[in-house]
């Protein structure tokens, strides 16, 4: 059975989504529990896959039993496995935490909501696990379509922002598809490994270069890298907390993963770093992204909107780390992918708790919160420390790797950007903490959040701390093998 | 390095960390304070239990977790750390007694939060004292910064908010903006951040890099309040007096000084400094701080602010003493951690007593208070003697060794600096005492009815005063420890 | 904005054109695309899957996994449309029209009257009602069964001729939509309830994924149809061919149901009351 | 010059088409027009894929029963793979269209117009 996990981890949530949508018409109350059990199952699958990968190296899986270039095949290495774990953990915690909010926000449509939820997880897991370039596109579209739906159900401005997201997202996905087409026309294959084997003979083909450019641009649109980030803030701000806390941590990180996959598994590191070397330019792009995100975040009144801009700048971290192109920086990049998913989840769970308790997400709204809900604030402050990058939270260590890598490669601008943005994060988060901590004496009837909301939040914090303390093992056994050998 | 591995340093840190849930959960204030005392005493005992080993010249080390190649969160107890640990843990006991009296006397709000974060801050302090490499030290340093924020801003009013901002801006800004890059550079060049006797960095480090690192560390560890990075300390005086007493006279600022000592002696190292004679640079900055601090202190009328500026100048004694790179001066500096701690905490306690008893914050309103509160002002007198550095107080020894050090290196300037600042110290402390006792009756601003501060406040004050006298007669322990430290570091 | 758009577009166009220099000319029989992977499909598909229509074979077997998700995309779109548009509040329209069947005279019922009146000689008609068109309705009535028959043929004959689940499903869905357009939404919903097509939509995809799951349960890889041979008592090749057929049926159902679902939600703005 | 254009006119056509779509998506003010542009864009990509599958003198990829199980001449049948991929892409574009229309309907219900600038003005007023 174990060898079937790679297929099951994607198809079980898929099947569950159908069952959920049917039970949405029959017994609405079941939907949540079906989804819950499925997500627990997925966690088991993903961690056992990770375990297999660590113990016995890369896993191959042939769908329909057809050998790779002709059929679709999985090629699961450490990077896939790691992302699978992140996705499943995040989705599970978020599901538990948002149960009540979903019941309140969309009572008749709960069935549809959980269907889309399961579909979204399916899409993300599929993107992460697949080894076929075109299959990735299809799953990308699944994740995006469900994402549009989940975002659009929010406040009344959400629809418009979701429509804009749809335009941008479609352009991005189509660019990716086009890039794959360009590759196909010169290589005649769609399997990532196969393409990467054929490619070395085509290094000086213009088509390959253009294909690379188009793919990258498409993915940058999807991951909201600075000049192409326009859709993100509105979309995430106006969505309901129950959907934004799923999409915000995962969507962009998975896109970063796809970028790494395209860089290293389709186009070889040899090609992107030796042959055409756009590294310096892209790192400068990411530096501007970091600064832009930080500055915009400073100028926000609404806390949720502030976080969306923090996401933009964090994307800058990861893209920069990926394109500095030495081993240390890449370690930082992958590590930060994990951290950022967790931290963002923590932050958005906190926002979810606020909105569920009818506290509006502004600096006035959260006055006196440390007194009213001390546990929630405590957990949030720990997340904040991780955003700022204080040891022993995991945020510090990924930042440390990024800085170290940047220093080795001589990207001092990137170092500066990281440090400045950390300082700005201090300001951002202490503005929140101040607002919550001072003037705490006005009696209001806000109660501490309920257990099912607190437990996931605290689990996130615990994971952040544990990952921080055990990062040596994480890096040694998972992240380091995930980086291609030829990168020093 | 002849050392033994033991978990005791970790325990010493965890004691007060683990006590916080109990403190937070305890409904009754008596139980809460009982827990505090328990933790404080336990911590002190653990620290003292390690003393014999240290005195035998060994050291105790314990590695918590490896982070990345050449980098780990690990603890090591050596003589230098021991001095600091003993001072802060012993003073925690006294201070917690004092805080009980103070907080109850003034009926402060949310005392539970206060005691919790106090405990956190203490474990961070001990952590800094016992940390074996830069990254561990950095970790506890940050922990201390964030743990002290709620204490500094305890009153939660506009003033507290502004000074809280200032506090974070200087301290966190310094640590992230300057120390972090400096650590990165060190790690990038050496591949490790451990404290090495005689310096972590290779001797062939270029002058430019050495200067950059030095300045980054010196100003980055803003807790040492070297000018121009000193403004947070007077601002932080909005905190309740016990906080100012323990944290801003002992724990926090001494953490800064301690970090600087570590960096100068065990990261940059003697060779590099003396090679590019950067130590003169440090001495220069330090002596400027000393003199300017004392001068500003003269002009301060608010009691605690005057003490704050005196602290600023006294801290630079330590920096100066270390930067002289001379055995005698080093002994003086490391003793000064202890001596100044006892003296200065006495002074702060007295300020607190006056405030509790009369609600007065300004020196000009304190004429003739000595007749009303004789014990407090007597203690104040002793404390000020110790800070000035006159016998029969412990302060005498540290200053004596510092002076000897300056003479050994034949630097008359710094000798002069020390002497002048001693005069200044006298100039800004003794008038207070004089006015308190010997002002004519008709000028006294006090009618009858003003009593001494409550016992909970008075006893700790007296204890500290006696402590600083006792250190004059029995300074061996600290002298011995600092000699051992000297051998280990090998100046 | 327009100028910016123009610049972007021109630059992208130039970039894309630039790459065509290395492309094989149009219809070149030995371009890499036609030499590397595809020849195997053409050579082997019949003997490996027993399906002469190579496109169907590749679609549902070699790359069946893609197709499953492609069907899921449709399903997802249906769910999203429902999720966004459907309103459950049964607020009756401001005014409803009823036409007397014999005389053709129309009575208007105001809002205050709640319950639908159902006299057998009256029928409810849309508020934006076009005059009663006998020819159109009758022709559609007559054509719809043939359209559906043809749709079933297309689904069933996908193995040997152009066609298959998607095409057939679309035609089938179109027949229902035609009904809805020519008559009105209610008369279509009378034949295909909302609950029914919503569930069918899920069932159709589930058939597809279920086949794959069955293969896993029988100890083979996901979607490896030859696992079905013991169940169907045939050779592995024929099992593949049957498996393809089953999933095509599933796809057909799913696509049909989704087409209807999306149309209903869009046309009635989710009120399921009066369509276009 | 011309040897780059004449034998490859299919690419030129699809690129032109695609750029038309892209231009519409970026510059148009009406949401529905944007959606139309999006469809043109996607259709162009479909055209591109299908055209790359073509082989001169080959027929549709369905094996005649006459020479069913014998040796099959590859050049007689066009490349089936792009067609399969495009079947998927078509379906995806249809699905996207459906969702986009649903969103547009909702926007119209909320704001009573589909012109972006008017909608933004309305939002400002609120």
Largest interface: A-C, 62 and 60 residues
The quaternary structure here is heterotetramer
What is the helix/strand order of chain D?
Answer: HHHHH
- Number of domains as seen in the coordinates of chain D: 1
State mean pLDDT of chain D (0 to 100 scale). Answer: 87
Rg of chain C to the nearest angstrom?
25 Å
Mean pLDDT of chain C: 85
Question: What percent of the residues of chain D sit in helical stretches (DSSP H or I)?
Answer: 55-70%
> Which percent bin holds the helix content of chain C?
55-70%
Distance between the termini of chain C: 36 Å
Largest sheet of chain D: none
Instruction: Tell me the strand percentage band of chain C.
Output: 5-15%
Please mark out the parts of chain C with pLDDT under 50 across 5 or more consecutive residues, or reply none.
Answer: none
Determine the number of helices of chain C (DSSP H or I, runs of at least 4 residues). Answer: 11
DSSP strand count of chain D: 0
Q: In angstroms, what is the radius of gyration of chain D?
A: 21 Å
What's the helix count of chain D? 5
Write down the overall geometry of chain C.
Answer: globular
CATH architecture descriptor text of chain D: Orthogonal Bundle
Structural commentary:
The complex is a heterotetramer of chains A (488), B (491), C (276) and D (126). Chain B is mainly alpha-helical. Chain B has helices spanning 8-25, 29-49, 51-55, 79-106, 111-130, 134-152, 158-190, 207-220, 232-235, 241-268, 270-275, 279-299, 303-323, 327-358, 369-372, 374-388, 395-408, 412-438, 455-473, 476-489, and strands spanning 3-5, 59-68, 71-77. In chain B, strands 1-2-3 form a 3-stranded mixed beta sheet. The radius of gyration of chain B is 21 Å and the shape is globular. Chain C is mainly alpha-helical and 276 residues long. Chain C has a domain at 53-85 and 131-267. Helices cover 63% and strands 5% of the residues of chain C. In chain C, strand 1 (95-100) and strand 2 form a beta hairpin. The two termini of chain C are 36 Å apart. Chain D has helices at 2-5, 9-27, 31-52, 80-111, 116-125. In chain D, helix 2 (9-27) runs antiparallel to helix 3 (31-52) and helix 3 packs antiparallel against helix 4. The mean pLDDT of chain D is 87. Chains in contact: A-B, A-C, A-D, C-D. Chains A and C meet through helix 1, helix 5, helix 6, helix 7 and helix 9 of A and helix 1, helix 2, helix 3, helix 5 and helix 9 of C.
